[in-house]
Design goal:
InterPro entries: DUF1996. 10% of the residues lie in helices and 26% in strands. It is mainly β. It has one domain. The structure holds 2-acetamido-2-deoxy-beta-D-glucopyranose. 2-acetamido-2-deoxy-beta-D-glucopyranose binds next to loops. The site of 2-acetamido-2-deoxy-beta-D-glucopyranose (NAG) has 3 residues, from loops.
Length: 356
């Protein structure tokens, strides 16, 4: 990150003479694992179990029927911004062992990036104003959304919603692919970028996606919003880290039965308790000091610090189901059948969306 961030700063410096400090447009919410379980209060709201197992971080009030109000009222969060009781989740990763059994891959925490990357629709607008003057709005109260498609097993480079899903192989090589990595990775960092444009009306929709959109001009990681979804909001980017160091082959599968990685996706329930302070963050939590800046609106801990990630348990017990914590399973939970091809070759160029 630091190398490409420096490159970005250099490019912007030569182009428009803003200082490196002013291009700081991101803050992160750093989270420990909250739970790994088969529930989904967005896609399977109210159902005792969901289609597949999820890795979850954030507000502790995660249950089958978590509303935004419930999330806000969480007793605690596993994340490090004390104003944020949002809940973030993705499909859990498994490894297919040589004997055909499924081993739960340890989820070792997550980073959620809050990015100032998109601008409102305006007639005739072809590019966004400087990030020094353009501030995407806070995510609206009550917002729930999903990015990605659990059923994808192929990749269409022309589809912006598919480019928004990728995987970072972290050590010993360092590369990103839209498929699951093809190299051996100490960590597989599964990544999903969310659409940053809102229709201004709906807080959710039947498919949990159509109230949001990716930019009409630009890329999945930022640009000018479409007329149909004219309001630019802070863009979310999830990184979920799975400890894959001990696995020397590529036989991974996400919990919904996806061997390709293209079906990776993320879910978000807005649980910020102070949206004004969230909306001010990209004005006030700036510069090299980020959330440690004296004036940072997120810097509200008792000791003036932004808080810290912690280990917490969900307030409601997970479904009583063996999902792999006691050893490899004969079948994926809910008998999901793995489909798609294990990636054999690098299928896309290296992209680091958070550094654009
Ligand atoms: C790929 O995505 C583009 C843009 O969404 C779409 O127009 C095209 O039909 C897709 N191709 C396939 C084969 O699905």
């Amino acid at each position: 990150m630091s190398v490409s961030k420096a490159l970005l700063a250099a490019v912007l410096l030569s182009a428009s003479s803003v200082s490196a400090q002013d291009v700081y447009d991101t803050f992160t919410v750093n989270c420990n694992r909250l739970t790994t379980q088969r529930r989904d209060p967005i896609v399977s709201f109210g159902s005792p179990t969901s289609d597949h197992v999820h890795a979850v971080v954030g507000g502790t009030n995660f249950k089958a029927d978590t509303t935004n109000e419930d999330a806000i009222n969480s007793k605690a969060t596993t994340c490090d911004k004390i104003l944020d009781n949002s809940i973030y989740w993705v499909p859990q990763l498994y490894h297919i062992n040589d004997d055909g059994r499924y081993e739960l891959v340890t989820h070792i925490g997550s980073a959620i990036y809050y990015q100032n990357r998109a601008c409102d629709y305006e007639e005739g607008r072809t590019s966004c104003p400087s990030i020094k003057t353009n501030f995407a709005a806070a995510l609206p109260a009550g917002l729930r959304m999903l990015s990605g498609d659990k059923d994808l097993r192929t990749f269409n480079q022309s589809d912006i919603t598919q480019r928004a899903i990728n995987h970072h192989c972290v050590g010993p090589v360092d590369e990103e692919t839209n498929s699951l990595p093809v190299a051996h990775c100490n960590i597989i960092r599964a990544q999903v970028t969310f659409p940053p444009c809102w229709d201004g009306i709906n807080l959710d929709s039947d498919d949990h996606k159509s109230h949001m959109a990716f930019p009409a001009i630009g890329e999945f990681h930022g640009g000018v919003c479409p007329k149909s979804h004219p309001i630019a909001v802070i863009q979310l980017f999830f990184e979920f880290n799975f400890d894959t160091a001990k696995y020397t082959d590529r036989n991974f599968v996400f919990a919904q039965g996806d061997k390709t990685g293209y079906g990776f996706h993320g879910d978000f329930i807005n649980g910020w308790v102070d949206l004004e302070k969230l909306g001010d963050a990209h004005r006030t939590c700036t510069g090299a000091q980020g959330v440690n800046a004296v004036a940072c609106s997120l810097n509200v801990g008792a000791d003036g610090s932004p808080g810290h990630a912690s280990n917490q348990s969900p307030e409601v017990e997970p479904p009583n189901e063996e999902i792999g914590f006691n050893g490899p399973l004969d079948a994926l939970p809910n008998n999901k059948i793995p489909t798609g091809d294990t990636p054999q070759a690098k299928l896309s160029s290296r992209v680091f969306p958070r550094d654009y």
